[in-house]
Design a protein that fits this description.
- 30% of the residues lie in helices and 24% in strands.
- By secondary structure, it is of the alpha/beta class.
- It has two domains: 150 residues, Beta Barrel (Lyase, Ornithine Decarboxylase, Chain A, domain 1); 259 residues, Alpha-Beta Barrel (TIM Barrel), CATH 3.20.20.10.
- The strands form three sheets. Strands 4, 14, 15, 16, 17, 18, 19, 20 and 21 form a nine-stranded mixed sheet that branches. It has an eight-stranded parallel barrel with strand order 5-6-7-8-9-11-12-13, surrounded by six helices. Strands 1-2-3 form a three-stranded antiparallel sheet.
- Strand 20 and strand 21 form a beta hairpin.
- The protein binds ligand LLP.
Length: 438
């Protein structure tokens, strides 16, 4: 499978954004995350286009947790996207990049007082309230500032989406949000609507991630609209906004067939309009928070192949110069990926191998994948690593975080520098009584 601007060039190498990946690996070193700018922008535009026609009163809010750095914020601002941040760090990144605060939505299921203050003082567009503790804190901070704060409330619709257990969030048994099925959501939100320091704009849900069917979205929208109808019935309140979170899946394997953005938009808008009509409610502003489906397929990881260990009758291990620290997803979610030998991209992938990392444990990355015969020094390209890879990178074994380059029309720009060994010890503190002469 070739995604976005990926193609095989005359040398038989994988090319992305007009850049030869083998040359990128040589110039910048590996592991290297390569982001395809054209695909990234195309995905933002596909969302905008799909909803502009069907439901013009909408905002597309990129979920920064999937991949964020200052250049990404700048690109999102150029594409006139909004941004969902879920921590002080994500908010700081956005503000440092000059991303307009009036397009920022602040999330988090245990926002600290400092995070709430930061969001208020930056004048972010909306704060999405997750729980009562946070609500009390927010009200107190709003009173201190003599302000009215624009909020959405995160609800838990109580449905079970079909995806990996660790990325499921719509079911009753979740740490997130206010429960709809037991009446908690209605009780808390109706009280908040009456509060002079809060301007409750509407409700939010996020049911899960990497969803390859649209059933969960359909069910959650039905439940959310019923709740909106109940608000009007109980207290005459008509919500202005409905935020349906993210979750649309992407292609990790050529056999994966995620719904297109257009068919997703058909289901969302079709369901929403049908439910609104049933309850005779006006269209709220439709907000959504795609992360993975904007950046996932736009990212490729390049590794250099080291030892190739053939265990006759068992398997062949291909060891790369990264692993768990730059891609924890196979270990966490049994995630699968497609790989190819970037400098042998035109050769038949006729060997089955298992790719492992270089951490001091069994960090199998990709089990039983088909590749062209790999040799030490070859470059291995892993597709669809744009979402939750750099974002979840760690320093395990004191590995440095890889570099990120943005490629476009034959140009490669570094957007995140590779960490240095110096960076690794920067935060270490040596008590005087332990200091040794150097
Ligand atoms: N909005 C909220 C409130 C979320 O919690 C998330 C993802 C999104 C939007 C974006 O969802 P997306 O469109 O990317 O599916 N680390 C996991 C994924 C965790 C997703 C967490 N929330 C992984 O690597 O699969």
């Amino acid at each position: 499978m070739l995604l976005g601007t990926q193609r095989i060039n005359a040398q038989g190498h994988l090319e992305i954004g007009g850049c030869d990946t083998v040359a990128l690996a040589r110039e910048f070193g590996t592991p290297l995350y390569v982001m395809d700018e054209a695909l990234l922008r195309a995905n933002c535009r596909a969302y905008k286009r799909a909803f502009a026609d069907r439901y013009p009163e909408n905002d597309i809010i990129y979920a920064g947790k999937a991949f964020l750095c200052t250049a990404m914020c700048a690109l999102l601002a150029e594409e006139e996207m909004c941004l969902d941040v879920a921590s002080a760090g994500e908010l700081h990144t956005a503000l440092m990049a000059g991303f307009p605060p009036e397009r920022i939505f602040m999330h988090g299921n245990n926002k600290s007082r400092a995070e709430l203050e930061m969001a208020l003082d930056a004048r972010v567009h909306r704060i999405i309230v997750d729980n009562e503790l946070e609500l009390e804190m927010l009200i107190a901070l709003a009173k201190e500032r003599d302000r009215q704060v624009d909020v959405l409330f995160r609800i838990t619709p109580g449905i079970d989406p079909h995806t990996h257990a660790r990325i499921r969030t719509g079911q009753v048994d979740t740490k997130f949000g206010f429960e709809v099925p037991n009446g908690q959501a209605a009780r808390v939100i109706e009280r908040a609507i009456a509060h002079p320091n809060l301007n409750v704009r509407g409700i939010h849900f996020h049911v899960g991630s990497q969803l390859l069917d649209l059933e969960a979205h359909r069910q959650a929208i039905e439940i959310a609209v019923e709740l909106l109808a109940q608000f009007r019935e109980d207290i005459g309140y008509v919500a202005e906004e409905l935020d349906i979170g993210g979750g649309l899946g992407i292609r990790y394997l050529s056999s994966h067939e995620p719904p297109s953005i257009a068919s997703y938009a058909d289901v969302v808008v079709g369901t929403l309009d049908r439910c609104l009509k049933e309850h005779n409610l006006p269209r709220p502003r439709l907000l959504q928070e795609p992360g993975r489906s904007i950046v996932g397929e736009a990212g490729t990881t390049l590794y250099t192949i080291g030892p190739v260990k053939e265990i006759p009758g068992v398997r062949t291990y291909v060891v790369v110069d990264g692993g768990l620290s730059d891609n924890p997803r196979p270990a966490l979610y049994d995630a699968v990926y497609e790989v190819l030998v970037a400098n042998k991209a035109n050769q038949p992938a006729d060997l089955t191998v298992t790719v492992a990392g270089k951490h001091c444990e069994t960090d199998t990355l990709f089990q039983d994948v088909r590749v062209a015969r790999p040799e030490p020094g070859d470059i291995l390209a892993v597709q669809s690593t744009g979402a939750y890879n750099y974002a979840m990178a760690s320093n395990y074994n004191r590995f440095t975080h890889p570099m990120v380059v943005l490629v476009h029309n034959g140009q490669a720009d570094v957007i995140v520098e590779r960490q240095t060994l110096e960076d690794l010890v920067r935060h270490d503190v040596m008590p005087a009584r332990l200091a040794r002469p150097k």
